[in-house]
Structure formats: structure tokens, C-alpha cells
Amino acid sequence: MKKLLIAMSLFVASAVLAADPMTKYDAKPGSKVTLDGTSSVHDWTVESMIIGGSMELGFDPWNPPAAGKVPAKVTTTIPVRSLKSKGKLDPKRMEEVMQETIKAKTAPRIEYRLTELTLKEAPKTATEPLNFDSKGELSVAGVTNQISMPITMERLEGNKLKTKGSIPLKMTSFGMKPPVLLGLLSTADEVLVSFEWLTEKAGATTAAAK
pLDDT per residue over 24-37, tens digit each? Predict the structure, then answer.
């Protein structure tokens, strides 16, 4: 039994040593999330320039591995009150309705947590974006759903990454009722969510400044 325990300990230790270290990338200004929808009158758009959180990668994006699942952790947050109207509707009223619909008082943040990341194929050039399939948990208006979406990751100068993606979602899937404005204008259930998330390798700015 003692020999078995020693063997198991050595196996676990070797597995830990063999695992790739996780490199952290912090959210930086320059990000954007957009919600596009339709109504009985015309289309509408709201945007936020704030995507907080961080990403940890167990591989080097500038020297990516072969296609397959890759180690990664992602948590992001978007303050609901940072969503601003960009459409033709009354901006102030649209933002009020949006905050009411997403239940900003009880669920002030939109949150996302990555659960799985799969590299579709290794890029052919140093400038070609990395293409992934992702799975995660999205929490909106106090309701959490599992979502899957393709994403791309651009490798930028200065140890920065720009991750992009989009997914159609239904408000009713998150317990939200599509709002009606002024008692006349009704919005459709489906919303297209698109994002561009800029992150930078932790400590990169400090190191570059030395």
C-alpha cells in the first residue's frame, strides 16, 4: 500500500509539472459589446465600451498548439448601466427600458464564464487570427444559461489580444419580456450580441516601461 501511495504521488507530481503554466491577460480599454435588435418600427442598438474581467491561457497564442481543446479560464463582467443607446429611438428612454428589462436593480452586471475552449486549427501565418469554438455560462437578468459560440483571437503588438464573437440570443430565454415602448413600439425577442474584447498580458506594460 505504501508503494502504491508513493507511485500515485509521483504520478500526480509529474502531471502537475508537465502541465503548461497559465498566463493571465487583463481587460483593457478599447473593448466593445453591442446588442442589436428589431422592433415594429425600426432597428435598435445599444453598446457598452466596458468589458471587465480577465483571461488565463495555458498556451502561447503566438506559438499555438495543434487543433483540439486548450486550457483556458475566462471571466467577464459588463455593467448593465454602461449600455448606451445608439439607435434612432429616444436614447434616454431606450436606456431606461433596457435597464428595466435586464433587471439592473437586482442583476446589475452581465457575467460570463468560459467552460471549454477548442482550437479549430492552427493558424497558417503569424498574422492570421486563431479560430475557436467556445462553451460557457452567460448570466443576464439573474438567469444563467449555457451558450456555445465561435470566437476569433487576434494577436496584436505589445502582448495584446483582441477576442471577437457574436451570438443570437432570445430575451425570453433569460426570463426577460421583450419591452413595448410608448405602448406602441414592440421589440422582437431575438437580440444579436457581438463583442470585441481587448486584453493585455499581465505585467506587460510595466515590463515594457523598464
Answer: 999 999 999 999 99
